[in-house]
C-alpha cells in the first residue's frame, strides 16, 4: 500500500474545512475543559489520573464505548482502581460520554458533538490496536476519528491545544524520509494508520497557522498574549510499568517478545550501538498531562526532561521567554520521546531480574527458532500475535558517540528505567505471563537444561466489555491454577 497517497487524500479533505480563529473572550481563567479518548486503556487511564489530580482542569470529558452509561462509568472506575489512582470523588469532575471511534463523529449524540466546540484541550489517545489488521480495516477507527476531531478543533473558537498520541514504528535517527516511508508501506496497518493520523494532525496545525498569518492584524487586535493554538504529536517508544507497581500491558509487543525469549531460552541480540526508546507509563502520562497544562497556565511547576523533538515545518513548542511572559505563539510540534537505554542494558536487566542467563542469538537465527516454536504451539505461544512482525532489530541504530551522549544526558534516568524494567518483569512473572523454568537455575546455567510447563491446556478467555482490566485465565501444566493478567483489549477506546 502507498501510505503517502492515503495521507494526501486526507490532507486535501482537511483543507476544505472552515477554520475559525479564537474569539477574544475564549481565553479566560475559568479553568480548563479537556476531552480525552482512550481513557480506559493502559496509557489512557494514567493520563486521566494525572488530569484529575490537576485541579486547574475543571472538567475532563472521556469517550467510552459501552451499552449504557452505568457500564461505561463502572469500566472507568475499575480500570482506575487497577491503575491505583481512583478516588470516589472522581466523577465530580470526570464526565463520561458514550461513543465509538469507528462511527461517524465518534458515535456521539448530536448534543455532545456540538459541545466539543467548548473544549479547551483535546487529547486523542484512543485507537484500535490490532497488529494483524490491515490499514483499510483500521482506517475508520484510527484515522477517520482523528479527522473528525481535527475538523472540530479547526472550527472551534475555544480550542487551545490538540494533542495526538501516536504509536507504531518510529523513524530511525539515521533513516531518511524515503527509507521510512518504504518501511511504513511494508509495515502493519496499525503503524500506517498512526502515521497518517500524526501527519494529519501536523497538517491541521499548518492550515491553522496559514489562516492566522493571512488574517490582517489578528495577532495585534484579536489575540490576547496567552491566546495560542497548538497542534501536537507525542510519539512515545515502548511503554512499560513503573518502578513501584510494574503494572504492564501483556498485549504489548515488547513483553510478548520477552515472554517468547524466556520460553525459548534465548533472545535476539541487536548490535552494540542500538538504543531502545522505552519509558514508564507514569512518566509518559505525566508528560502528556504536562503538555496540556502548559497551555492551561502561564507556567508549570516541576522540571521534566523533554523528549527529543523533530520539527519539520514546525515551530518550537515554547521558549523560556514565552513561558515567563505567558505567551504561546501558534505552534505545530512533533515530540519524539527518546527516553530509554541501550538495548544491551535492557536485556541485561531482564536476565538479572529473572536470575537466568539466556542464550544470545542474531535476529535471523532467533526468528528461525521462534517460527519453529510458534508453529508447534500455535496460539498458546506468546509470540503468536507478533510472529509476522519480528525483527530486524528491537532498537534503533545510532553511533557509539550518540549512545555515550544519550547515556550521559539521561544518566539520572537510566537507573529509573532499569528499575522499571526489573519491576515490570517481576510483575509479569508474578501473574505467570512470563513463565520461568520449573526448576530455577542460576545465571551460569545452560538453557539447554531448562524445562517449562506445557501450555497445551491453556484456556484464554476475555470479556469484550473490558479494556485494561481484561481477564485471562492461564492454566498451569496440571490445570490447577489460574491467573489474572492485566492487559488491554485490542480495542483501546
Essential attributes:
493 residues, alpha/beta, eight-stranded mixed beta sheet, four-stranded mixed beta sheet, 15 helices, 14 strands, disordered C terminus
Explained architecture:
By secondary structure, the chain is an alpha/beta fold. The chain folds into 2 domains: 295 residues, Rossmann fold (3-Layer(aba) Sandwich); 127 residues, no CATH class. 40% of the residues lie in helices and 13% in strands. The protein is built from 15 helices and 14 strands. α2 crosses α3.
Query: What's the CATH H-level homologous superfamily of the largest domain?
Result: NAD(P)-binding Rossmann-like Domain
Helix tally equals 15
Widest sheet: strand ordering: 3-2-1-4-5-6-11-10
End-to-end distance: 26 Å
Number of strands: 14
Biggest β-sheet strands, sense, barrel: 8 strands, mixed
State the CATH class of the largest domain: Alpha Beta
Gist?
This is Thioester reductase (TE) domain-containing protein. The chain has 15 helices and 14 strands. It is of the alpha/beta class and 493 residues long.
Amino acid at each position: 500500500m502507498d501510505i503517502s497517497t492515503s495521507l494526501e487524500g486526507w490532507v486535501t479533505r482537511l483543507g476544505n474545512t472552515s477554520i475559525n480563529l479564537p474569539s477574544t473572550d475564549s481565553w479566560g481563567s475559568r479553568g480548563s475543559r479537556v476531552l480525552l479518548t482512550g481513557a480506559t486503556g493502559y496509557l489512557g487511564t494514567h493520563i486521566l489520573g494525572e488530569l484529575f489530580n490537576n485541579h486547574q482542569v475543571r472538567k475532563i470529558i472521556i469517550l467510552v464505548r459501552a451499552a449504557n452509561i452505568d457500564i461505561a462509568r463502572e469500566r472507568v472506575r475499575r480500570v482506575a482502581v487497577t491503575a491505583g489512582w481512583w478516588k470516589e470523588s472522581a466523577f465530580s469532575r470526570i464526565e463520561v460520554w458514550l461513543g465509538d471511534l469507528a462511527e461517524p463523529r465518534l458515535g456521539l449524540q448530536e448534543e455532545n458533538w456540538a459541545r466539543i466546540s467548548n473544549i479547551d484541550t483535546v487529547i486523542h489517545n484512543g485507537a484500535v490496536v490490532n497488529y494483524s489488521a490491515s490499514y483499510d480495516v483500521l482506517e475508520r477507527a484510527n484515522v477517520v476519528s482523528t479527522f473528525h476531531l481535527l475538523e472540530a478543533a479547526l472550527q472551534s473558537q475555544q480550542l487551545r491545544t490538540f494533542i495526538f498520541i501516536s504509536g507504531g514504528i518510529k523513524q530511525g535517527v539515521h533513516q531518511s524520509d524515503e527509507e521510512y516511508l518504504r518501511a511504513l508501506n511494508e509495515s502493519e496497518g496499525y503503524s500506517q494508520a498512526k502515521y497518517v493520523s500524526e501527519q494529519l494532525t501536523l497538517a491541521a496545525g499548518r492550515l491553522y497557522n496559514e489562516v492566522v498569518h493571512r488574517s490582517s492584524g489578528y495577532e495585534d487586535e484579536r489575540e490576547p498574549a496567552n491566546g495560542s493554538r497548538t497542534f501536537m504529536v507525542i510519539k512515545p517508544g515502548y511503554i512499560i510499568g513503573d518502578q513501584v507497581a510494574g503494572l504492564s500491558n501483556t498485549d504489548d509487543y515488547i513483553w510478548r517478545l520477552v515472554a517468547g525469549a524466556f520460553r525459548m531460552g534465548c533472545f535476539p541480540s541487536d548490535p552494540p550501538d542500538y538504543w531502545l526508546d522505552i519509558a514508564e507509563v507514569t512518566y509518559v502520562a505525566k508528560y502528556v498531562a504536562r503538555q496540556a497544562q502548559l497551555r492551561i497556565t502561564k507556567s508549570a511547576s516541576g522540571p521534566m526532561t523533554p523528549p527529543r523533538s523533530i520539527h519539520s515545518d514546525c515551530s518550537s513548542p515554547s521558549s523560556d521567554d514565552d513561558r515567563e511572559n505567558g505567551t504561546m505563539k501558534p505552534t505545530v510540534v512533533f515530540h519524539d520521546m527518546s527516553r530509554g537505554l541501550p538495548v544491551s542494558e535492557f536485556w541485561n536487566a531482564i536476565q538479572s531480574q529473572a536470575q537466568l542467563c539466556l542464550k544470545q542469538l542474531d535476529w535471523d537465527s532467533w526468528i528461525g527458532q521462534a517460527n519453529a516454536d510458534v508453529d508447534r504451539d500455535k496460539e498458546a505461544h506468546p509470540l503468536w500475535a507478533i510472529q509476522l512482525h519480528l525483527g530486524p532489530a528491537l532498537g534503533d541504530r545510532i553511533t557509539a558517540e550518540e549512545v555515550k551522549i544519550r547515556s550521559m544526558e539521561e544518566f539520572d534516568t537510566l537507573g529509573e528505567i532499569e528499575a522499571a524494567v526489573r519491576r515490570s518483569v517481576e510483575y509479569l512473572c508474578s501473574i505467570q505471563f512470563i513463565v520461568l523454568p520449573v526448576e530455577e537455575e542460576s545465571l551460569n546455567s545452560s538453557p539447554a537444561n531448562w524445562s517449562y510447563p506445557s501450555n497445551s491446556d491453556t484456556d484464554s478467555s476475555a470479556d469484550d466489555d473490558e479494556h485494561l482490566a481484561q481477564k485471562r485465565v492461564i492454566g498451569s501444566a496440571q490445570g490447577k491454577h489460574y491467573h489474572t493478567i492485566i492487559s488491554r483489549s485490542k480495542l483501546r477506546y
